[in-house]
Design a protein that fits this description.
heterodimer, A: alpha/beta, Rossmann fold, 3 domains, 8-stranded mixed β-sheet, 7-stranded mixed β-sheet, globular, B: alpha+beta, Alpha-Beta Plaits, two-stranded antiparallel ribbon, disordered C terminus, binds thiamine diphosphate, binds iron/sulfur cluster
Chain lengths: 766, 123
């Protein structure tokens, strides 16, 4: 759904051509971006901020704005795209959350330290590990020391308004700093609220004006050096300038808020104070939870209790004066934080509020600090009331019983922790049924594998238990299972972030009957390589039982081979004894089907929409197999779900190489009925057609020798790509006459890669 | 509060306590033993590992795998198995109440009295 498809009707009585609507925070962020019409957005999908790029892409496909949307290889790359673009003196936007923020954090001080304005929407979410997609502020707190201005948007209306304000603030000649607009994941990003917004972009354009950058790297007649090498004694001066810019932001912000108030009719204070005039007790907290606290304050006021709520609209620069004014006369305040600074007896807000009070030597306000709502745990009225009661008690008794604690931890359940395993671990014999074998032919030197007829493998123990949560008809697990059917001996798996990981490990359940690790998908290969080396080192030191034989397998999606490409290549170049299995479903499916670099041209995804101004993905699919082959691995293979004979044999070879030579990599095409928009039962047939049209050739590269293992032409099964594309909802549009050029370009590319592969097959040195 | 530290699940495989019946929407693969040739093609494509096999000793001393049935507790009704089956042993039926329970072959018979609400030692 797009934020605005049809022109909304102007609502009479609202200033400057505004209209009423009912929208989520993410819709409002996209709407603001569209009205600002940034030059560039560099981004990488991550829940719960992904929708912003999706909405913008959908609008772009219909020609509603000109923002050039660039799907990065990861958030670190996304931040790099934004940084580079911002040095060119244009307007730049990004949106991220959680791990995305942390993965790009290194770039934040670069952006602020070299003083290039941009806007980033941080849709707050808990940080890993363990992985949690819901909203808390553990990501937000990491940004406090980065030199970025931080605005806090408590509801969808504020998301829209503060994004527009952010542009003005960041570009102010005295400021020139990047700005974060932070709002609560799910609570604000996904819940619809009544909102008001400008019908057209003109009023917003008028408000943000033209950006005249201080420096630009796009004026060859005025060359500049951005980011010199700067040691002492200069760096402290650079940071002092940054500090002055923050002070300037503090100074100019009220004026900008005023000016926007005149335009929109909505004026934001620097600190939002609710019923604070005569309050004796207050809660201090950030964003959406403050709105809950306000409701509870009303209820408590009905009982005659003088309570109020304070929540800043800006966190950097920290509005110490306004906070002191707001709560200086209260008897007790409780500062509630949705993230901990473990061991810090309260996170930054606690200590900054306390220090704001301390600057008034007369101040007698008692301060309590509580951590609440971690991992997106709801903050309900009763939670707010419980916190108010703690502060009221302190005000009444004049004493703080407990300065710092957690609120909302589940008490122990005595029946937990002592039950037996649901399924017994596999025995060594069960893991080595002796059905598959691989050995070098001593005469020819060729690796020969022996696999039984497939029906014989039906009783082999499965290392993935049923009960996982994949969509009906998903091709992931048949493919992964077939891979393990081709192996013998103990297995340790590492799954990178993605569907296979999420649907098998929803706490407190796990479908993994062997040792399993998750690490984030930019770093799985490195992680597993560390474990592989620990295994061999422990073996060398005699710390593991004699004869222990473990095969280490990383399972990743195609998205994980985008963001994790560097890590995978690193492991490949180090040639650890392990296997990387990529299941390729042609997109980032776990986060809602965004394009991956493996998505072929023209395919429709939620970040490559089909419309009048754009026809699906603009570039060709990545040839990950050849990239990995260029690392000169002992073994590289492709296969598909539902071609079990092929996959089982290649798995046996991969295991042999991982035991004896080094890293083996395989890419297996699997169906995703949900996002390919096909019926649940046809996935296997569709991937077969992807092979038969030469889009996804089945081959292997064994010690540098390429061998096509199935040639559709040779067996008379070759079909045109159009036949395959016509079967899927995500590509059916490509078979229409207006996409003729695109489908031809696709076919040409597919055939070119196929001819190249055939040449390699024929020539031992290619 | 008494969970294993680090969020570690120390009981991998406990997802078998789940019941996925609600994922089906009105249709179910019915199994007809007399038509089955035990080729296991259904088993290879099933995303949810629902097929239950017996290992049988044949007269000549060799072992044979024999398909016993389907554990409908895990079946999401995707019908991939029907697409894969070369015979008439699987049919695409409308799910009548009680059918799944009556025809279900449990994959983990020892677990039949455990409910899905109590995953164990992960705490
Ligand atoms: C650093 C980081 N960025 C983004 C995400 C969000 N994320 C989780 S899974 C995923 C997509 C994974 O795609 P792929 O590897 O193809 O696996 P699939 O979901 O398709 O199974 C994304 C973008 C994340 N967890 N961490
Ligand atoms: S979204 Fe696609 S890949 Fe992910 S579980 Fe569902 S069908 Fe499988
Ligand atoms: S319908 Fe799908 S889930 Fe059910 S048994 Fe067949 S393949 Fe498995
Ligand atoms: S595919 Fe059909 S014939 Fe083959 S084992 Fe399964 S049910 Fe029997």
């Amino acid at each position: 759904m797009v934020a605005t498809t049809k022109k909304p009707k102007r609502t009479p009585g609202l200033p400057n051509g505004q209209t009423l609507g009912f929208k989520t925070g993410n819709e409002m962020a996209a709407m603001a971006a569209k009205h600002i019409n940034f030059h560039i957005m560099g981004y990488f999908p991550i829940t719960p901020s992904t929708e912003i790029a999706e909405y913008l892409d959908e609008m772009y496909a219909e020609g509603e704005h000109d923002i050039r949307l660039i799907a990065a290889d990861g958030e670190h790359g996304g931040a790099g795209i934004c940084y580079g673009a911002s040095t060119g003196g244009g307007r730049v936007f990004n949106a991220t959350s959680s791990q995305g923020l942390l993965y790009s954090l290194e770039q934040f001080p670069v952006q602020s330290g070299t003083r290039f304005p941009m806007v980033l929407d941080l849709v707050t979410r808990s940080i890993n590990g363990p992985l949690d997609i819901r909203g808390d502020h553990s990501d937000l707190y990491f940004t406090l020391n980065t030199g970025w201005i931080i605005l806090l948007a408590r509801d969808p209306q504020a998301v829209y308004d503060l994004n527009i304000l952010a542009v003005r603030l960041s570009e102010h000649p005295d400021v020139r700093l990047p700005v974060i607009v932070a709002y609560d994941g799910f609570f604000t990003s996904h819940q619809k609220r009544q909102v008001t917004y400008f019908e057209d972009m003109e009023p917003v354009q008028g408000f943000v004006g033209n950006y005249q950058a201080t420096h630009t790297t796009l004026d060859p007649r005025n060359p500049i050096t951005v980011g010199p090498y700067m040691n002492d004694p200069d760096l402290i001066n650079n940071k002092y300038q940054l500090n002055l810019a923050m002070e300037a932001a503090y100074r100019v912000l009220p004026d900008i808020l005023q000016e926007y108030g005149k335009l929109s009719g909505r004026t934001y204070p620097v600190v939002d104070c609710y019923k604070m005039e005569d309050a004796e007790v207050a809660l201090v907290l950030l964003n959406s939870a403050a709105e809950t606290a306000k409701d509870v304050a009303d209820q408590l006021r009905e009982q005659g209790l003088k309570v109020g709520v304070v929540s800043p609209n800006v966190l950097r620069p920290f509005p110490a004066e306004e906070i002191r004014e707001a709560i200086g006369n209260t008897k007790a305040v409780l500062i509630a934080e949705r993230a901990d600074s473990y061991g810090g007896h309260g996170n930054a807000l606690t200590h900054e509020v306390k220090s704001a009070l301390k600057d008034d030597p007369e101040n007698r306000t008692l301060c309590l600090s509580r951590i609440y709502g971690l991992g997106g745990k709801d903050f309900l009225n009763e939670d707010a009331e419980a916190l108010f009661r703690l502060a009221l008690e302190a005000a009444d008794t004049g004493k703080v019983k407990k300065l710092f604690d957690y609120h909302g931890v589940t008490p122990s359940n005595p029946s937990n922790g002592n039950a037996s395993r649901v399924l017994p671990p596999f025995t060594k014999e069960e893991m080595s049924p002796g059905l598959v074998s691989a050995a070098r032919d001593p005469e020819t030197g060729e690796l020969r594998v022996q696999t039984p007829p497939l029906w014989k493998l039906a009783t082999r123990s499965r290392i993935i238990a049923p009960g996982h949560g994949a969509c009906p008809g998903c091709g992931m697990f048949p493919a992964i299972d077939q891979l393990f059917k081709g192996m013998e001996g103990d297995i340790v798996v590492l799954y990178q972030t993605g569907c296979a990981m999420v649907v098998t490990t929803g706490y407190p359940f796990s479908s993994h009957r062997v040792n399993y690790i998750h690490n984030l998908f930019q770093n799985g290969a490195a992680t597993l390589s560390g474990l592989v080396e620990m295994f061999h080192e422990k073996q060398r030191r005699g710390e593991l039982p004699e004869g222990e034989d473990i095969t280490f397998v990383m399972v990743t999606g195609d998205g994980g081979m985008d963001i994790g490409m560097g890590s995978a290549i690193g492991a490949a170049l180090r040639n650890h004894k392990m296997i990387i299995l990529e299941y390729d479903n042609q997109g980032y499916m776990n986060t809602g089907s965004q394009l991956s670099y493996s998505t072929p041209i023209g395919h429709m995804t939620s970040t490559s929409h089909v419309g009048t101004a754009q026809g699906g993905k603009a570039s060709h699919h990545k040839d990950t197999l050849q990239i990995m082959a260029a690392c000169h691995l002992p073994y590289v293979f492709s296969s598909v779900e539902g071609y079990a004979d092929d996959l089982v044999k290649k798995a046996a070879k991969a295991q042999w190489y991982a035991r004896n030579e080094g890293l083996a990599y395989g890419k297996v095409l699997i169906s995703c009925p949900l996002n390919w928009r096909v019926a649940d039962e046809v996935g296997t047939d569709i991937v077969q057609e992807a092979v038969d049209c030469n889009f996804f050739p089945l081959y292997e590269i064994e010690q540098g020798r390429t061998k096509i293992t199935y040639d559709p032409e040779a067996v008379g099964r070759k079909i045109p790509v159009g036949q395959w594309l016509g079967k899927m909802g995500k590509t059916r549009h490509m078979t229409r006459p207006e996409y003729k050029a695109q489908i031809e370009a696709f076919e040409t590319e597919v055939e070119r890669r196929w001819r190249r592969l055939k040449a390699m097959h024929e020539h031992p040195d290619l | 509060m008494d969970a294993a530290i680090g969020g570690t699940v120390i009981d991998g495989g406990n997802s078998v306590l789940k019941n996925l019946t609600a994922s089906r929407n009105g249709y179910i693969p019915a199994f007809h033993r007399d038509e089955c040739v035990d080729c296991a093609l259904c088993d290879l494509v099933c995303p949810d590992f629902c097929f239950v096999w017996d290992l049988e000793e044949k007269e000549d001393g060799t072992q044979a795998t024999r398909l016993r049935g389907i554990d409908y507790k895990f079946c999401k009704g995707c019908m991939k198995c029907i697409d894969a089956c070369p015979t008439e042993a699987l049919s695409w039926d409308r799910e009548i109440e009680g059918y799944a329970d009556a025809h279900r072959v449990p994959l983990f018979p020892k677990l039949e009295d455990r409910s899905s609400s109590t995953p164990s030692s992960t705490g």
